[in-house]
Amino acid sequence: MHPGWMSQAHSHMQTSAASLDGDDWASRRTTMKNPSTGETLVDTRSTLAPTMANIAINGSEPDSTFHQDNDPSDEEMESVHPRYGSLGSGHVELGRQRSGVSNAPSRLGAIAGCEEHAFIMERMRSRLRYYFMNPLEKWETRRQFPYKLTLQLVKIFLVTLQLILFGSYRYASVNYTYDNRITFSHLFIKDWDSSREITSYPPNTGPLAVYTKDNFYDYIDNAVNAYNNVVDTSIGPYYYHLDNEGKVFPLMITVEEYLAASIVPGNESYVFDTTTIKRSIDVPVSDIPFSTRNFLAANNFSINFVTLLELDITFSLRTIRFRDLGPLKSPDCFSFKILISFLNRDHDGQMLVNLDSTPTKFLCKGNNKFTVNRSEKIARSIMNYSVIVICALSLFLCCRAIYRAQQLKTVSRM
Fold this sequence. Notes:
With 414 residues, the protein is of the alpha+beta class. The chain has ten helices and nine strands. It is 45% helix and 19% strand.
């Protein structure tokens, strides 16, 4: 057996023992004694360690450049310290096994497995830390441009701009219908006061009500006569609602009352039926001044204030609004259903008067010539399409973030 090969095996055996004890090469003695014979053995680990690493890994033969002067003889290798195992000239393979030469690949595999596990854990920690970073921290860590944050800011800007435009147009439409309601109150309600147009608490005035029968009929007369002359007297472009034959829809008076109710003052007795009925009568448009008493008497339509619950006057008017907002300056056509109510449900001697109008937009029929602001129309179309695309992209990014979070949760639990 070649002495240099044995010397390298001896050195590798001591290297494996030193790695198991966790001691450093520099802290160990360069010589050792045989406890049985007391002989001093030369420690050649510092010279042979690099070469034995190649032997353990590659199984190659020792280099021919080893110095033979430092190699121990076969007799010196017969017995060594029991801690490192015994190696004789005829038991080289046994010495290899005890010194760990044959187990070196398994130890290296275990060390590699630990390192791989530590690498995976550190990578998982890095992924978790990075997932919960804000855009500024991600920029400081990886210099990654915060495109998702930029997308959200652009979306907020465009949606806010779109909301402002929609709100301005909606406000103009609501304000238009409210102003028409105020106009109808001035036209069709007698003794209307402008102080009632301001909402305040406590209110500046009391409720609008009638307290006498004459005042009640005067209010009805004023409403019917104003309706008959609204086209000529009003400043606004109000027109009658025509049927298919071109006739004006008449004004309608509807009475809601109890079926039977009477009071005998002498003995404080009464007759009362809680069943309610509704009766209505149409009032045609006429140039002649209208009198409610005469008209109801002529049509055998009486009003009993004891049984009366509510009297409604219903009619409709049409008007055209010329817009000054939006890219299209085409006119809007509205039909207003106007309801004037006289409420007597409490039977307390006070009949409340209320006016309400319900607008309905319909398609105008006519040869409309209007200018189109093309630049405003194109800008609005671009903004609308941009909002759609950005919102869809934002939704995709949110879904992707949720999916990746679920994946990260599943991996972290493995």
